[in-house]
């Protein structure tokens, strides 16, 4: 195993552990993947049946976009997870990491006709920058891959209606960062809606200006790195077994 793959394995295992710590776990049905180096698209994903806190660098499964496991005797992966992740990895070269969650806030907003509203500056990060994929059932049929990719377009965040959330990043750190704030945006919206009062939605110009500020490349990448390094320190203090 080369150094690059080892680092990808470590970062991906860290993301699974953080998913658990943040309360985003859906038993064994949550999945994150990371593209492996190489000319042919292949990726790492969790073993089907493991909870996020059981994932470590060494027990991740390597698989190509045709479903072929790259190591003999590897365990199975989540079939629906394979469909979603292979769809993105085979079509979006910039999507090094793909993160999909079934958080309560994410699933709730995914069921709202209006989708995500720009009610707070956190939400405005995704203003006119979040894609939507209409529900078609559990994604087991590989034919849906083309429609998933078409819906995602060049966005880094997508709400799968009546299902959950998805983010993609140029690194595990970026996909995690985007998921953290996409989920937080959903939580903010639900909390505001609980008040039962009229919601203040800023005008387009204010929302777009804020979105450009928060998505400034230099600011964004610095924020991603600072947050990721802080989260790795948190994990190492609590349990560094994700590295094994």
UniProtKB/TrEMBL annotation:
Gene3D superfamilies: Class II aldolase/adducin N-terminal domain. SMART domains: Aldolase_II (SM01007). InterPro entries: Aldolase-II_Adducin_sf, Aldolase_II/adducin_N, Aldolase_II/adducin_N_sf. Residues 10-190 form the Class II aldolase/adducin N-terminal domain. Belongs to the aldolase class II family. This is Class II aldolase/adducin family protein. It comes from Metapseudomonas resinovorans.
């Amino acid at each position: 195993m080369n150094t690059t793959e080892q680092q990808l394995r470590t970062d991906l295992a860290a993301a699974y552990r953080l998913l658990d710590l943040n309360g985003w776990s859906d038993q064994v049905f949550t999945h994150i993947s990371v593209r492996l180096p190489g000319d042919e698209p292949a990726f790492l994903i969790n073993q089907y049946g493991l909870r996020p806190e059981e994932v470590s660098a060494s027990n991740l499964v390597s698989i190509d976009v045709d479903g072929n496991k790259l190591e003999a005797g590897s365990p199975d992966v989540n079939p629906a997870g394979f469909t979603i992740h292979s769809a993105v990895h085979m079509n979006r070269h910039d999507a090094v990491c793909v993160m999909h969650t079934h958080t309560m806030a994410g699933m709730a907003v995914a069921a709202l006709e209006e989708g995500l509203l720009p009610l707070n500056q956190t939400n405005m990060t995704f203003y006119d920058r979040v894609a939507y994929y209409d529900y078609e059932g559990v994604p087991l049929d590989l034919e849906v891959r083309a429609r998933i990719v078409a819906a995602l377009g060049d966005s880094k965040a997508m709400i799968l209606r009546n299902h959950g959330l998805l983010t993609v990043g140029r690194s595990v750190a970026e996909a995690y960062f985007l998921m953290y704030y996409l989920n937080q945006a959903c939580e903010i919206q639900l909390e505001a809606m609980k008040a039962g009062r009229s919601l203040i939605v800023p005008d387009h110009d204010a929302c777009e200006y804020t979105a450009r500020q928060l998505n400034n490349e230099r600011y964004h990448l610095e924020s991603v790195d600072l947050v990721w390094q802080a989260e790795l320190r948190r994990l190492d203090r609590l349990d560094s077994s994700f590295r094994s």
